[in-house]
Amino acid sequence: MADMIRTERLVKRYGRVTALDGLDLTVAPGEIHGFLGPNGAGKSTTIRILLGLARATSGEARVLDGHPWQDAVRLHRRIAYVPGDVSVWPNLTGGEAIDFLCRLRGAGRADGDYRRERARLIETFQFDPRKKGRTYSKGNRQKVALIAAFAVPADLYILDEPTSGLDPLMELVFRSELHRVREAGATVLLSSHILPEVEQVCDRVSIIRAGRIVETGTLAELRHLTRTAVSFAANGSTLAHGATPVIPGAHDVEVDAGRVRFSLDSDQVTAALPELTRLGVQGLRIEPASLEDLFLRHYGDDLARERT
Ligand code: ADP
User: Fold this and answer.
1) All domains of the chain, ordered by start, with CATH?
2) Chain segment 172-182, per-residue pLDDT in tens
3) Is the pTM for the entire model greater than 0.85?
4) Ligand 1 pocket residue status of 129, Cβ below 6 Å
């Protein structure tokens, strides 16, 4: 089957700012594709072009079987979109806003499936649909867009940092909806700057930096990029004073400011635990690599060059 999203050498300039610099992104049918990069990398610009909200300076973009700019009306019936910062109509209730957004995608008031899905989502997202838009917090505005997106089946869900402002419980609800629509055969493009979120839900990931895709692959293929930082108190273990521990899979072991620090490949953490237990370590801290760390480790030289 053809790709659901395909961009080739996509360029977008805003005056002297190059937001996209030859972006090649491919999203296959039926996958949850993570679109990962730090703020300012070009995620929203890409998504705006895919939705036909902005025009590329050059390059090609295809979404489903059409052109996002020329075929916008036809394509939008099959696309559900959630932005990272949702605006709602101040004078409509949340329920009215959901109905309005869903009508644009073909749902009717008398449509039994829609009424059932809407009621189910309002309950699982613990949303009060009777209040006026102007009274909603950021998290509640986000829920309006998420409920509207998931209440009407779509072929393609384009979600631009959709969980900003949601509490952890609601993130779980969000994830279970993602899995549900994927089971139903839909495709999802999920932009995020949060690595653990992407790790938990995505089949494939593309990493964007400075308007280009710098890595793309399955999580297993990208696993080599992520390392977990581990540290423990240097004086709290059975380790001889000043000795450097030998821990299976550890990289860059150092003793600094009274703590032993090292990094582990993310899939090696459980293998190292027995040795840490044997050493009787205290004050153990295990921190997954942040996306920023990952970028600095892989692209630090480039970033330093750009700044000079
Ligand atoms: P992300 O979504 O990854 O945070 P964006 O796509 O919002 O990144 O931004 C990419 C780059 O393009 C940034 O340098 C941003 O300042 C710039 N940019 C985005 N939109 C505009 C605009 N409308 N006018 C000028 N510059 C813009």
Assistant:
1) 5-220 (3.40.50.300), 227-288 (3.30.70)
2) 999 999 999 99
3) no
4) no
